[in-house]
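Backbone shape codes
____________________
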Amino acid sequence: MMKKTTPRTQVVLLVIISLLVGYYFGVSKVSFDWKNYKPVISAVSKEPPPGVTTVDFSSFWNTWQKLQASYYDKSKLDPQKMLNGAISGMIGSLSDPFTVYLPPTQNDNFKKGLAGQFSGIGAELGIKNDRDIIVIAPLDGSPAQKSGIKTQDQILKVDGESTSGWTLSQAVEKIRGPKNTFVILTVLHKNDKIPTDIKIKRDVITVKSVTGLIKNVKCLQKCEVVEKPCSDCQKVAYIRLSQFGDNTNSDWLNLVKDIKSRMGFKGVVLDLRNNPGGYLTDAVFIAGEFLNPGQAVVLEDTGTYERKTLRVSRNGLFRNTPVVVLINKGSASASEIVAGALKDNKRAKLIGETSFGKGTIQQAEDLGSGAGLHITIAKWLTPNGTWVNGAGLTPDVIVALDSKDQARDTQLEKAIEELLK
């Protein structure tokens, strides 16, 4: 005899059946969606450019088709991201860390940086050994500098995510972000063996590329900068150039005209420390402040066995003024061009540490839809034919900062001493 099921038992069975049915259709629905989702793709502008006639793209489209047919989660197959990845891979085959594809956001960030304002931590990044993301230089007064980021720091992780295999543009995109948000960088300081986690609060970074003032110097046993003028003080002009950006030339002209109007200073200390570079034309312009018209600033080698010499084309205000130049490991690219030009033309001594060593020139191209491409178009050499790539410029007088007394600028002190000899 079959027993009658109580109402309570019936409710329990109904709940169990509902759960099983829901689970079955839920799993089936997800599986169904994954297998049948197909992104709508319309390939446009697919004709090859003139001169490209022998490349077989069948493997590219076969790969695309097989991913579309077999990859388990079709919603992850974003056609634009796949295309961006293919472009990045094509550029990566050159093994040139400075030839990079910049998707719209990254390209916009780069342009804002040259314009002198962006939101982030304020550090110029680079790649060494074709794989390591490093800090070329933290910008003056930036959150990066205040948090303890230093030149030559290797960035191992960003918010816990390894930077292994990242491109330079990927690192910049991950580290930048809105004002008042935080990013945690895992860095390995030079000469350290244990990485350090540094939490940095992002801010709007405004880069003033040129600053300067007249310094009062009292020389007894050694030369020291003093705050107030004194009867036995000498005066030197100190000019700090932090980058070669959109406003550098106009800011420079305004500053040097003001300094030139102040009589009585003995010479100029040009501080290019932690200057990551910028526009080549700006480097030629700045060097022209100290060199005579017609003198060589930089040699451009495009690999066609022809070298183009870029020369001074203006009458600078400091052509006959004594000058010394400060450089360090954060001095790269355009700042190395200026330092190398003044050294080779016997206009200045270089004081400080060996520079970064970036000896190539990039050309920025807009690709439409906000994306950009930086292409290495040439290598540059100093007027005497020295290629600094990887080696950097060696100072005439090597001076390290005093690690025990960070308030003291031993490099600047030595520069002033050399200037006043």
In short: Confidence is low (pLDDT under 50) at residues 1-39.
